[in-house]
Amino acid sequence: MNAAQSPAASACTLLPALSTDAAELALLHAACFDDAWQADLIGRVLGSPGGFGILARLRQETVGLILCRSAAGEGEVLTLCVAAASRRRGIGRALLRGAVETALRRGLTSLFLEVAENNAAARALYAHLGFEPVGRRSGYYRNGLGIAVDALTLRCNLRFGTGKAISDSSS
Ligand SMILES: CC(C)(COP(=O)(O)OP(=O)(O)OC[C@H]1O[C@@H](n2cnc3c(N)ncnc32)[C@H](O)[C@@H]1OP(=O)(O)O)[C@@H](O)C(=O)NCCC(=O)NCCS
């Protein structure tokens, strides 16, 4: 698998994430989020019939992860993260493109996700790949200070919305 686009991201190897990677992926997740996912949960997602994920390896180290699941023809991005030291090199974009490509191969019609309204980095990334707001969940997240933050529900229409994003290797 090679959905990486920028020179830096192309130094990364993208691989299907397997249940057997769960412990390593949990360590990465814990380094990226306050509400870390346990290895057991990651393993269950990857082992479930609709579950799929991609990891990014840079010089033997796992530096990125996207986890998704599908049901009834639609997909959902459950989590996406890149190790802090490896950000802004195109790895997040490569992982998201990889997930979109996998979803297309699986015949999914849409990919949904939730993002905190104040997560400017993730929102910019999702907008680049054609994800558009379709809903809002009031107070869905708590930030580090316990303050409620709204979630935006974004959707990428895989039938009409991804041609530009997938073929536009310069952005
Ligand atoms: C969001 C995240 C996955 C992005 O990963 P990344 O590898 O740094 O992203 P990329 O380098 O592929 O960036 C792609 C585009 O996203 C946007 N972007 C990424 N980080 C950004 C930042 N800190 N500020 C503004 N825009 C940003 C930019 O438009 C960028 O394109 P550009 O570099 O050409 O300007 C990463 O910041 C992360 O893991 N954050 C913590 C976990 C998280 O918030 N996950 C998302 C939960 S919904």
Break the fold down into its secondary structure elements and pairings.
Blueprint lengths: L6 H4 L2 E4 L5 H11 L6 H9 L3 E8 L2 E11 L2 E9 L8 H15 L4 E7 L3 H9 L3 E11 L5 E10 L5 H5 L4
Parallel strand pairs: 4-5
Antiparallel strand pairs: 1-2, 2-3, 3-4, 5-7, 6-7
Helix pairs in contact: 2-3
The protein binds coenzyme A.
Q: If you had to describe this structure to a student in words, what would you say it looks like?
A:
The chain is α+β, with helices and mostly antiparallel strands and 171 residues long. 31% of the residues lie in helices and 35% in strands. The chain has a seven-stranded mixed β-sheet with strand order 1-2-3-4-5-7-6, sandwiched between helices. Strand 2 (51-58) and strand 3 (61-71) form a beta hairpin. Helix 2 (22-32) packs across helix 3. The two termini are 19 Å apart. The model is unreliable at 167-171 (pLDDT under 50). The chain binds coenzyme A. Coenzyme A binds at residues 32, 80-82, 87-93, 115, 119-122, 124-125, 128.
Short summary:
31% of the residues lie in helices and 35% in strands. With 171 residues, it is an alpha+beta fold. The protein has a 7-stranded mixed beta sheet with strand order 1-2-3-4-5-7-6, sandwiched between helices.
